TrEMBL record:
Top-level taxon of origin: Bacteria
Protein name as catalogued: Type IV pilus modification protein PilV
InterPro entries: N_methyl_site, Pilus_4_PilV
């Protein structure tokens, strides 16, 4: 009478557990990448909203559009509504985005708003968006 095999079920179970573990590690890697890219997309959305906010402020005060000019990375200066709008906007950009900076170029009736920030998804990388509008 032949002896029954022993340990085969245990070996199959261990192989199945190994395959399952590798699959779960793959899912974990995908989840991590998803979180990184979601965060990058969030920052880009915030930057776009902030640039649009400044364009709206300039449109609301188009008579003083030239006073809104601001070099990228500089602090707001001057007095009046344009300076107030600039200082609030620069503070918002710096608060909402990592390493956030903003700049505004005004050329006749054409306004260009630039927002730049550090990209947290890849080290030492800087992201930037620029919105341009005619007044």
């Amino acid at each position: 009478m032949p002896t029954p095999q022993r340990g085969i079920s245990l070996l199959e179970s261990l192989i199945a557990l190994l395959v399952l573990s590798i699959g779960l590690l793959g899912v974990l890697g995908l989840q991590t990448q998803s979180l990184v890219h979601n965060r990058a997309a969030y920052f880009e959305t915030q930057a776009t909203n902030m640039a649009q906010d400044m364009l709206d402020r300039i449109r609301a005060n188009s008579e003083q559009a030239a006073d809104y000019a601001l070099t990228l990375g500089d602090d707001a200066g001057g007095s009046g509504l344009p300076a107030t709008d600039q200082s609030e906007w620069v503070a918002d950009v710096a608060t909402m985005l990592p390493g956030g900076e903003g700049g505004i170029e005004v050329n006749n009736r054409r306004v260009s708003v630039t927002v730049r920030w550090d990209d947290t998804s890849s080290p030492n990388d800087i992201r930037q968006i620029q919105l341009v509008s005619e007044l």
